[in-house]
Design goal:
This protein has 207 residues and is α/β, with parallel strands linked by helices. The protein is built from 7 helices and 6 strands, in the order ββαααβαβαβαβα. α5 (161-167) links the parallel β4 (152-156) and β5 (174-177). It is elongated.
Length: 207
Amino acid sequence: MPKVQVVDKTGAGIEEIELSDAVFGIEPNGPAMHACVVNYLANQRQGTQSTLTRAEVSGGGRKPWRQKGTGRARQGSTRAPQWTHGGIALGPKPRSYRFTLNKKLRRLAMKSALSSKVSTSDMIVLDSFGLEGIKTKDVVAVLKAIGAEKKPLIVLDSVDENVIKSARNISGVKTTQINNLNVYDIVNAGKLVVLKAAVAGIEEVYA
């Protein structure tokens, strides 16, 4: 079983806990993580881009010149795709980019992402932030003390307004809860800062 040190908000070690082998100790599966990252990014796309076809561009109702005898190529409309101000041929239209992955693959990818953070020592288990109010500088001080200043992802066991509002305007810092955790955020994070209570919740869901 992998073991990690639980630290307090000053960065001092409190205790050592054992993590579940089934969640934090598997061999990371690269293709599964890649599939989940592609799926997440595709599902974020709005798909609202749109271009006008020759039928939708205004003008071009009259034939620009007669069919034969001018020496020029035959043309039926000044709004054909080859004309300036003409319609766009085969351009993008509004569509959905969403697709789904099966549950087994998503669970494997999540376990792989968590295990990869543990294996590279990029997961930090924090006892508690101990915030009494909304103070951004307090969160900055905690992250500096535990060595998680570069793009940390803070995983909370439940909604904590003090932590969320204190961290939301710090560049590169993102907060989430267990039920909103996703593979893209874990892979994209420089350090994974997980509250001790959240570790038990993650193991309960994915073990």
